[in-house]
Amino acid sequence: MYVVKSPLSDASLKAVSEALQGALVDLVDLALVAKQIHWNVVGQRFRSVHLQLDEVVDTARKYSDIVAERAAALGIPPDGRAATVAVGSGIGVTPEGWVDDTTAVATLVDALGAVIARMRERVEATGEPDPVSQDIFIGITADLEKHHWMFQAENG
Ligand SMILES: [Fe+2]
């Protein structure tokens, strides 16, 4: 069922749709992972890591909304359901229970690294079919790479 008419051709829409939907599940999961660690981190660096994690949550939530609404604007129904996120996320398994601060930071370095690699692929994939979506992916990548730098510096 087509409710919203897309400005893109069918061929362009396929590539852009995959990129936007993939980014949505990665960002929803990143927000969940960052909250999980925010609640469970322990150790001498608790306070700084706890607060730093909420900055990642804010970034991930902001961009998940932007990506989902970009999809909708292109006539693609965004799918942010938990089951869809569980199957499609590029982030690996998050540790269960209390997490020491060094492991917490390493978990975020890995999670951000995985999402950034996929986001850079989306930058490449959308440049020709839809530079407007590409612009969104470039902005997301820049912000995620800033967070990635800061977590790497934490364990440096
Ligand atoms: Fe909190």
Automatic annotation (TrEMBL):
UniProt xrefs under SUPFAM superfamilies: Ferritin-like
Domain Ferritin/DPS: 18-153
Similarity comment: Belongs to the Dps family.
Protein name, per record: DNA starvation/stationary phase protection protein
Annotated source species: Streptomyces djakartensis
